Amino acid sequence: MTGPAPVARVTLHRVALPLLRPHLAAHGREDRREVVLVEVTDAEGVAGWGECPTLARPGYAPEWTDGAWWVLRRMLVPALLEGRGVGVVGHPMASGAVRDALLDLRLRRAGEGPAALLGPLADRVAFGVAVGFTADVEATARAAADAVAAGAALVVLKVRPGWCAAPVAAVRRALPDLLVAVDGNGSFDATTLGELQRAAEEGLAFVEQPMAPGDHDGARRAVARLDVPVALDEAVAAPADLDAAVALGTGSMLTVKPSRLGGVEAAAAASARAAAAGWAVHAGGMLESGVGRAAARALAGRPEVAGPALAGPTALLFADDVVDPVPAGADGTVPVPAGPGLAPPPDPDRLRALTVASWTRDAGPRTPR
């Protein structure tokens, strides 16, 4: 792969993706999915794309979309165009979007796909679907059945204290052979851990982020008491977090997402690091557009990433997307991007229709230092 090309222009596209249904989890509710797409263009007009899939409010993570929009315009893009590098402490998703756009540009210029960056990848991966809170457990079971009918091999149920064992039991009754996991988004503690134990007795593939990030004692207690793998997501935002989790025994599995860890390269390094420590690795999702989801599927194609990835067709999430739909195969798998580039570029008409704000900055002459 060739070295980085000078960036002549950066355009930020803030797009609103129409959710088929509101997404509810312990950290909040998303009624309208806004993400920021980063487009970097070189002097020859070749463009690379990255995605910042922050949520509307800082609940799941400290970053949120309005904040990322500000940081990208006021700090990250000017730093990139002035040759000062990319990276702002506390903003891995915004920084990762710029890094992924630059990687996409490099791969596209070289006519190569993600394998040139990430190593040998599977051609296709099985996919799973996250199911948020619903009105009742029967609705949860129906949502899980709809996911299976669409080809999903895994359903991850969003849970919280008071909404845990019952929805798992309902899905188990309706779909006894389905691979089921739960995601607490850090909402449990020592007083409610018993609810997760009862859910695990129904048969779970893993329990994701049961305790709040930083609750190391609670996380160790969960690992000891739950007879299933405990996956960490919010608790691992940097390599040092993963090293600490391994040393402290606060998990046994990593949910890896390109955006959460500062881009696909950093996420690949984290997945390799986790596997070397004896942890399982699961590819998660962030309700991304097709741009970010393609990068997630590329990561899911790595050999150490096991099980169905939460990187299925975006048609299961949105009424429309910025890229052409990627359908699931008859075998319940989706393709790993082959290139060129890290992800498919948006369709211009779709992008125009879904954009709610845009911002462009051209590179100017650099002042010698």
TrEMBL record:
Signal peptide start and end residues: none
Output the Gene Ontology terms for molecular function. Answer: catalytic activity; metal ion binding
Protein's name in the database = Enolase C-terminal domain-like protein
This protein's record includes keyword Metal-binding: yes
Keyword terms, alphabetized = Metal-binding
Biased composition, Low complexity: where in the chain?
Answer: 329-341
The record's section on InterPro entries has: Enolase-like_C_sf (IPR036849), Enolase-like_N (IPR029017), Enolase_C-like (IPR029065), Mandelate_racemase_C (IPR013342)
Q: Where is this region: Disordered?
A: 329-350
Species, as recorded: Iamia majanohamensis
Q: Which residues form the Mandelate racemase/muconate lactonizing enzyme C-terminal domain?
A: 137-229
